[in-house]
């Protein structure tokens, strides 16, 4: 038996078939769960298939789109992963980790400008995202003005003053600049 409820919206009253909606959501969640279990077992093909089907059920679920991007990235299909991260970011643009992952994929594809932009967005959203800061500092092209490089290193050290990798990176970057 299907249950229907009246739901009020600003434009009037709509009827929603709750049982049908529950089946659709639970199917997507079942598929997503199956994809995560396959991923835990290391079966990337099954994980990709299940999560892709879950995304087809709920195409605006940014977390599921991102998870599919992560699976595809693990398969070293960086162009497809980058596209999926961008798609997830359209729905949820303020996620630093997703910008970071997009930067990694862009870097793997050889697009250093895109990688740098994504790392900068990630670090701008989360000043404690050390991998984004490091990625940004490493992805700056040689033509980057000295003041810009200094600013990135200053931000990195300000956010992580005691992290050895930040200190080591800053020291090596300054040494490289002095001896060019």
What this model shows, in words?
- Helix 2 runs antiparallel to helix 3 (62-74) and helix 6 (112-125) packs antiparallel against helix 7 (130-139).
- The model is unreliable at 176-180 (pLDDT under 50).
- The longest helix is centred in the first third of the chain and has 24 residues, at 18-41.
- This protein has helices at 18-41, 44-57, 62-74, 78-91, 96-108, 112-125, 130-139, 146-159, 164-178; strands at 4-9, 12-17.
- The chain is built from nine helices and two strands, in the order E-E-H-H-H-H-H-H-H-H-H.
- The chain starts with a strand and ends with a helix.
- It is mainly alpha-helical and 180 residues long.
List keywords for this structure.
single chain, 180 residues, mainly alpha, two-stranded antiparallel sheet, 2 strands
């Amino acid at each position: 038996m299907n249950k229907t409820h009246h739901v009020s919206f600003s434009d009037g009253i709509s009827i929603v078939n709750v049982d049908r909606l529950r089946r659709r959501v639970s199917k997507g969640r079942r598929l997503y769960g199956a994809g995560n279990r396959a991923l835990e077992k290391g079966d990337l093909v099954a994980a990709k298939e299940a999560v892709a089907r879950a995304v087809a059920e709920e195409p605006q679920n940014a977390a599921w789109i991102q998870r599919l991007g992560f699976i595809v990235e693990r398969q070293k299909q960086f162009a497809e992963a980058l596209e999926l991260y961008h798609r997830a970011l359209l729905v949820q643009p303020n996620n630093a980790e997703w910008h970071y992952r997009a930067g990694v994929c862009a870097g793997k594809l050889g697009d250093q400008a895109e990688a740098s932009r994504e790392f900068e967005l990630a670090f701008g959203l989360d000043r404690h995202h050390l991998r984004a800061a490091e990625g940004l500092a490493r992805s700056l092209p040689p033509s980057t003005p000295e003041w810009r490089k200094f600013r990135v290193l200053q931000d990195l050290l300000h956010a992580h003053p005691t992290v050895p990798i930040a200190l080591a990176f800053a020291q090596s970057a300054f040494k490289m600049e002095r001896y060019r």
